[in-house]
């Protein structure tokens, strides 16, 4: 039985003192959570501090990116082993902000994904169309090419370590959420594409998260849709008062 996942992408927020406080609040308020996997993804600088708080708890540590090489002259990058030494289990890959501001492409997402898998980490692979692409009727086409690019050469067995996040770029940090119908339609489409390539069992077991202005007020309606297996949360994950209710919603839906 797959668990719902609620993942928080802290982006470039929280120094170590703030990170410590937020991680502590989330941990304390989620001790009763059983049916939902909780992941928090602080900036690299706060990973160790947050790991000290959450290890052994219900809260799992994730990172926001990772380089594919094991070591070397790659100023500013971090490797799988470095992240593992901080207690990281999940790595977000291909977030639209990485694609938009840092030249991430489907090809580099694929390289990072291979390295994540080779090192025994798990990935949250982000895909999503821009507003322009949606308005041009190209949402599915864009997502198909992001999915096939990210998963090029990836074997079916690897999907137990992969989560997909559908994050329409026009809904990230804008307050505009995809309607539950819009989200469900794309999620079902992604699952269908995975099914075509990897078969029914892999597609059904795959968790597909929705991301884009998820908050306590819209979480229930979104997470009730059959192909939504959780959420990747940005803005609302920066306060325990808004992140924890989303987790509790997922938990209630599971029960
Ligand atoms: C994100 O960046 O992954 C995200 C979903 O952000 P927000 O919830 O703020 O739209």
Model description:
- This protein has 11 helices and 8 strands.
- α10 links the parallel β7 and β8.
- It starts with a strand and ends with a helix.
- The chain has one domain: Aldolase class I (TIM Barrel, Alpha-Beta Barrel).
- α5 packs across α7 and α7 crosses α8.
- Bound molecules: phosphoenolpyruvate.
Question: Any chance you could write out the topology, listing elements then pairs?
Answer:
Blueprint: E1 4-9, H1 16-29, E2 36-41, H2 47-54, E3 59-63, H3 80-85, E4 90-93, H4 96-101, H5 106-118, E5 122-127, H6 131-135, H7 139-150, E6 162-166, H8 180-198, H9 200-205, E7 207-211, H10 216-223, E8 230-233, H11 240-254
Parallel strand pairs: 1-2, 1-8, 2-3, 3-4, 4-5, 5-6, 6-7, 7-8
Helix pairs in contact: 1-2, 5-7, 7-8, 10-11
The structure holds phosphoenolpyruvate (PEP).
Describe the largest sheet: 8 strands, parallel, barrel
Helical region count? 11
Structural class estimated from helices and strands: alpha/beta
Low-confidence stretches: none
Q: From the coordinates shown, what is the CATH architecture?
A: Alpha-Beta Barrel
Q: Assign the CATH class.
A: Alpha Beta
Strand content: 15-25%
Name the helicity range. Answer: 40-55%
Summarize this, please?
The protein has 255 residues and is an alpha/beta fold. It has helices at 16-29, 47-54, 80-85, 96-101, 106-118, 131-135, 139-150, 180-198, 200-205, 216-223, 240-254; strands at residues 4-9, 36-41, 59-63, 90-93, 122-127, 162-166, 207-211, 230-233. It has one domain (4-254): TIM Barrel.
């Amino acid at each position: 039985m797959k668990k719902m996942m609620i993942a928080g992408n802290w982006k470039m927020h929280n120094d170590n003192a703030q990170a410590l406080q937020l991680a502590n609040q989330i941990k304390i308020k989620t001790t009763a959570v059983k049916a939902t996997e909780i992941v928090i993804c602080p900036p690299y600088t706060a990973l160790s501090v947050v790991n000290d708080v959450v290890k052994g708890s219900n809260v799992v540590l994730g990172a926001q990116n990772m380089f594919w090489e094991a070591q070397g002259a790659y100023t500013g990058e971090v490797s799988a082993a470095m992240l593992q030494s901080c207690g990281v289990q999940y790595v977000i890959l291909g977030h639209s902000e990485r694609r938009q501001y840092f030249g991430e492409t489907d090809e580099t997402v694929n390289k990072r994904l291979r390295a994540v898998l080779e090192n025994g980490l798990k990935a949250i692979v982000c895909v999503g169309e821009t507003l322009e692409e949606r308005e041009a009727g190209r949402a599915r086409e864009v997502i198909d090419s992001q999915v096939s690019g990210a998963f090029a050469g990836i074997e079916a067995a690897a999907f137990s370590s992969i989560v997909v996040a559908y994050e329409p770029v026009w809904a990230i940090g804008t307050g505009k959420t995809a309607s539950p119908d819009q989200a469900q339609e794309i999620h079902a489409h992604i699952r269908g594409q995975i099914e075509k390539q990897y078969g029914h069992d892999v597609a059904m077991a795959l968790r597909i998260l929705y991301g884009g202005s998820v908050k306590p007020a819209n979480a229930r309606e979104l997470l009730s849709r059959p192909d939504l297996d959780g959420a990747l949360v940005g803005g609302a994950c920066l306060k325990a008062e808004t992140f924890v209710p989303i987790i509790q919603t997922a938990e209630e839906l599971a029960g």
